[in-house]
Amino acid sequence: MNFERIARMAICYWSSNDKAFIVESPIFGQAVGLGATPQEAIISFQNSLAIAKDNFEAGCLAGAQPSERTGIDVYATINSVTDVTINRLTMKFDCSVDEAIDYMALYFKHAALIESETPALS
Known about the structure:
globular; alpha+beta; 2 domains; 3-stranded antiparallel beta sheet; 122 residues
């Protein structure tokens, strides 16, 4: 199992139900992070992923829910718009779901980079 790839594919977003930032990877549902800030959610996700990796290496990673492992009740789901977008990309470019997710992650990282390099108007 490629835990580096799982971490690379992680998505951070605000959950109004949880009133917190959530980090999850669409290719691995057994790890989730929750925090008051994106940074806290990323750290929580990294800790959750480390536990999952340890469990995997010990041969005992079953279908445990994130809330059982972290004690956090999470009501987050992958946004349906994201699912639709992934499906459209796989059909349009005849690619796998993983390749579509890789493309989306690269697209949003590039957009964030461009935004951070654009000077603010005064």
